[in-house]
Amino acid sequence: MSTSSATPGTPSPAASTAGPEAAQAVGHAPAPGGAPAGRWGSLGPVGLVLAGGISVQFGAALAVSLMPRAGALGVVTLRLVVAAVVLLLVCRPRLRGHSRADWGTVVVFGIAMAGMNGLFYQAVDRIALGPAVTLEVLGPLALSVFASRRAVNLVWAALALAGVFLLSGGGFDSLDPAGAAFALGAGVMWAAYIVFSARTGRRFPQADGLALAMAVGAVLFLPLGIAESGAELIDPVTLALGAGVALLSSVLPYTLELLALRRLPAPTFAILMSLEPAIAAAAGFLILDQALSATQSAAIALVVAASMGAVRTQVGRRSRAKRSLPGPGADGQ
To answer: How many Å apart are CA 273 and CA 47, to the nearest integer?
Structure first.
């Protein structure tokens, strides 16, 4: 995940269809503006993106290990609340001077963020992390394909569907149907997250909209987390682990991605983030001992290839469109 973000989460091919704001939102979101590069900048933009993806997926793996203590809803609540507190303290967003449409956009963004997180963590509570992220990334991939409206994207869609068929074993019986359904639902919310993250970025300065949306998601999930986990949410060990999940899956990757996007084209960013299912599979294996079969590994590879292909198609289309534009003086003036 998206994760993310995410906030499982996680960046996708759809980023190339909606501009830099959406690219920042794929599975994640923009970090507080003005974060100093420092030693992180020495990694280079590609290294920053990969480090962010690794942070997100290993944070998700930590969340899975926390679920026996706090439950899936409790983990989501801790992640959203801690991330919201951090972002509100750092960004200190202005509450006055926003229109009703501004607030409507940020509320829907927060709902999409909460839904994406809630559904994703319900999924990884039932199926392995790698397959869950693979199914989740179908939402952004579908958004990219539909937004492009090019015939070649039918090839990428077919490739992704072939991967899903392999992953499901022909019926999702090997994955747990409920877990697969939750992962697909998280993908739908991830696509909505991308759209409303871009709109929020246009309406609010820096990361103010993100901080406010995170607060909306935290408020929405707090009653659910309390109902499922109760006093366990304020247990010191649970709180510490939940803070670790929030930092690994939200705060740290947002900052790394912000630094990367200052020097990295959004389409390149999206291609790199298409590797998230593979990173998730590695995190699941290393931390949770979730070994994948050869068939599941092939399925993940197909979905990753489809995601990268869809992004590259969008990049090529934009490049050709730019080359076809008349240059200065082309009209004889």
So the answer is: 12
Say which residues have a Cβ less than 8 Å from residue 128's Cβ, sequence separation at least 6: 281, 284, 288, 290, 292, 296
- Determine the Cα angle at 11 with ends 1 and 151, to 5°: 115
Q: Would you mind telling me the total number of residues written for the chain in this entry?
A: 333
* Across 20-41, average pLDDT: 41
pLDDT at 267: 57
pLDDT digits (tens, 9 = 90+) for 182-213: 999 999 998 888 788 778 888 888 788 888 99
**CA-CA-CA-CA torsion sign (264, 214, 252, 92):** positive
**Whether the Cβ atoms of residue 13 and residue 144 lie closer than 8 Å to each other:** yes
Q: How far apart are CA 84 and CA 292, in angstroms?
A: 34
Distance between CA atoms of residues 179 and 60, nearest Å: 15
**Which residue is it, tokens 């951090």?**
86
SS3 assignment for 248-292: HHHHHHHHHHHHHHCCCCHHHHHHHHCCHHHHHHHHHHHHHCCCC
Nearest residue to 139 via CA among 160, 114, 159 = 160
Q: pTM for this structure?
A: 0.71
Per-residue H/E/C for the chain:
CCCCCCCCCCCCCCHHHHHHHHHHHCCCCCCCCCCCCHHHHHHCHHHHHHHHHHHHHHHHHHHHHHHHHHHHHHHHHHHHHHHHHHHHHHHCCCCCCCCHHHHHHHHHHHHHHHHHHHHHHHHHCCCCHHHHHHHHCHHHHHHHHHHHCCCHHHHHHHHHHHHHHHHHCCCCCCCCHHHHHHHHHHHHHHHHHHHHHHHHHHHCCCCHHHHHHHHHHHHHHHHHHHHHHHHHHHCHHHHHHHHHHHHHHHHHHHHHHHHHHCCCCHHHHHHHHCCHHHHHHHHHHHHHCCCCCHHHHHHHHHHHHHHHHHHHHHHHHHHHHHHHCCCCCCCCC
